[in-house]
Every structure is written in C-alpha cells, then in structure tokens.
Amino acid sequence: MALCSRNIGRHMCMLMRQNFAKSCEKKLNDQINMELKACHQYLAMAYHFDRSDISSPGLHGFFLKSSAEEREHAEKIMKYMNKRGGLIVLSSVPEPQPCFASSLDALKVALKMELEVNRHLLDLHSLAGKESDPNLCDFIEANFLQEQVDGQKILADYICQLEKAQTDVGDYLFDKYMGSGMHSGK
To answer: How far apart are CA 175 and CA 55, in angstroms?
Structure first.
C-alpha cells in the first residue's frame, strides 16, 4: 500500500477516523478500482460502436453514459473514503476489451461486469455489517444497491430484445429504438 508523504496531514486524518475498519477501507479501495475498470470498459465499448464500420449511435450513447456513471460511482466512494479518514489507493486499470463480435456480445459482457460489481458491493455491505459499521452499510444502500439492480434489469431487457431480433435489420432497429429512449424513465 502506498504511503502518504505528508505524515502530519495523514495523522490529522487518522484523528477523525472512527469505527472504520482497515478491512472495509481495503474493500472500498477494491470497489473504487472496480468502478474505474468498468468506466474504462464502457468507454471502449462506446467508441467501438461509434466506429464508421459499426455505426450504432444508440449503443454508443448508452455505453458513454454508462462510463460516466461508473466514474461518478468511483468519485463518490473516494469522497466517502476521505470523509471517513481512509487512504485512497488507485491501481492501474487493466486494458479493456476493444472489440465485440456483435451488439449482443457487448451487452452480455456489460451484464457480466455489472453482476460482478454488484457481487462486490454485496460483499462490502456484508463486511460492513460484520465490522459493525452502520454508516458504511447506509452509504452502500443509499447510493448503489438499487441502482445496480435497475441497471442489471435494463441490460437483461436489452439482451432479451436483441436475442429476439438476431438479424442485421434487427440490430439496426434495436439501435434506433435505443436512441429513442427505451428505458428512458430509468
């Protein structure tokens, strides 16, 4: 784990630390890095579907928005870590998958990634409960759990729709439908 060069500032940060277990801090850092990995992957997906030989503006916009949401999640957790007196440790982000055989394949990768992020959040919530940290439990419940379930439902719906329309025309119409706001009331 990286050490802060400003020991005095770090000491002051530790003074306000209360009921924040190191195990929760580590798990939150893992979550931050997982959110940034998802942000990177969604960004790669967005620009894959923006290529001139792919040209799927609906998927481009969907994945671009998803990337921004994942970055917001990481930043929200980082702000929370600072409030609790934790040390933020960012790791290098793995190279995202750059290309996809189809829209359906990309959506399946996205759903798998969201299920992994959700599993990690549930594990974090469970750990916070074991460490008797109601503040962390509340933070996770209020900011992430329902949004994860909603996002998984949307991806599952998109996958279902694309599986029903497995032709080039079906892909085209699906993408056009995405741009018109399927699930816009999210």
So the answer is: 9
pLDDT band at 19 (very low <50, low <70, confident <90, very high): confident
Q: Which residues contact 78 (CB under 8 A, 6 or more apart)?
A: 32, 88
For residue 179 the two structure tokens come to: 């741009």
Q: What digits encode the pLDDT tens for the residues 104-115? A: 999 999 999 999
Instruction: Round to whole Å and give the CA distance between 47 and 98.
Output: 9
List strand residue ranges (DSSP E) for 21-173, in order.
none
Does residue 43 contact residue 64 with C-beta atoms inside 8 Å? yes
CB 141 within 8 Å of CB 147: no
Give the containing element (helix H, strand E) for 103: helix 103-130
Question: For 99-135, b where at least 16 C-beta lie within 10 A, e where not — what string?
Answer: ebeebbebbbbbbebbeebbeebeebbebbeebebee
Instruction: Give the mean pLDDT of the chain.
Output: 89
Mapping DSSP to helix (H, G, I), strand (E, B) and coil, where does residue 177 land? Answer: helix
